[in-house]
Amino acid sequence: MLTRRSVLAATSAAFAVPLLGGTSWQAAQAMRPQRIGAQATIQLRFVNRTGAYDNASIHFYIVGTNLATGEQSRVTPEGTLVPVALADNGADGYADYSIPFSGSGDTISQIPADMSGRIYFSLGEKLKFKVNEGNALAYPAAWVESDPSYGVLHDCVEFTYKSGRIYCNTTMVDMFSVPLSIALTGEESPTTGTLVEGGRAKIFSALSASPDFGSLVVDDRRIIAPGHGLDAGKFSSTFFDSYIDQVWSKYAGEDMVVNANNTTFRGRVSGDQFVFDGGVKAFSRPSTRDVLFCDGALAAPNDGVTGPVAAVLGAGFNRTTLLASAAQPTSDPAGFYQGDPVHAYCKAMHDNMVDGKAYGFAFDDVGGFASYVEDNASEMAVTLTPF
């Protein structure tokens, strides 16, 4: 299976080994019955249920990587996959890759085969992409006030489409803004990403009222993820430090048992290192930033050994479950976000999803709690749900 982290890796490289439970994507494909004559494209259906914006004010953009060539690419209004180019930048210095919604009803498009990337939606105004030297595409960074698209209301879903199978997810890893849901039509026809009634307002209200997270709320436009908020000086750089210290103290005296990638690993803190058996590379004491980004000391290499353990640790820190149980990962979501401190951003996202699944941090797929679906599908529908 492909996780969100695999999907993102595919935008610049190839497919990654899943970081918890199971085999690699390539091995999983070998074991899965292959489809005969897998379709060259998958139909996209975009549904406007915002109740706040009409179709005439909404645009979409399909950008990412051509997996067959490795080129950064985009989908044209005709549904063709073409490489981005410096010449795409207009007189204002930005590339207009926008495609308008249909005048009324649902909007139909397609993803060509062998593509991985993102589908952006902008409401009211267009996004500004920029092609840099080497045909490198700069995406919007809505958590940076100087970004040219900072003032634009927008959001995205992520996908990889290969061999007739679509892997996709909604994401709040960078920010939360436009509520989006996904429904696939295929062999299993899964759905994800649907908010409870009034969910967007409930999320904004919960975080606006939080002393620690309130500064991440940008008007009614978006909520910046706390990692980006930390980098912008809007979130505490020591938020998780006390919890990290308690975890280090606890496991200096007892083993943590991690079940990851169908293997059991045992670890104990020695000095400033969390040392596991089984060939796992030792982990240094992480910082709050490392926890929020699941990076730095918690970086997960694509090796099937250290990577899966790093994913479990990252999930445990963000969900504050590492003190409650020495057996990781824990599987009961009722125990998530109950420790001190509470990752209120992630908690609000999960609390307001119909299926309880969200991508609030990079390792939210650990245990299957991410807003991620896959299928051998003929159609991927994305609904811009009510504000």
Which features characterize this protein?
single chain, 387 residues, alpha+beta, Thaumatin, Metal Transport, Frataxin, Chain A, eight-stranded antiparallel sheet, five-stranded mixed sheet, 8 helices, 18% helix, 29% strand
Provide a concise account of the structure shown.
With 387 residues, this protein is an alpha+beta fold. The chain contains eight helices and 23 strands.
What does this structure look like?
The protein has 387 residues and is an alpha+beta fold. It has 2 domains: 4-197 and 214-229 and 350-384, Thaumatin (Sandwich); 241-340, 2-Layer Sandwich (Metal Transport, Frataxin, Chain A), CATH 3.30.920. Helices cover 18% and strands 29% of the residues. The chain has 8 helices and 23 strands. It has helices at residues 4-10, 25-31, 199-208, 226-231, 241-250, 288-293, 306-319, 344-351; strands at residues 41-48, 58-66, 72-75, 81-83, 99-100, 107-112, 115-123, 130-132, 136-138, 153-162, 165-170, 175-176, 180-186, 191-192, 217-218, 222-224, 256-260, 263-270, 273-276, 283-284, 327-328, 372-375, 377-384. The strands form 5 sheets. Strands 2, 3, 4, 5, 7, 10, 11 and 22 form an 8-stranded antiparallel sheet that branches. A 5-stranded mixed sheet has the order 6-1-23-13-14, with no helix packed on it. β19 and β20 form a beta hairpin. The longest helix has 14 residues, at 306-319. The radius of gyration is 21 Å and the shape is globular.
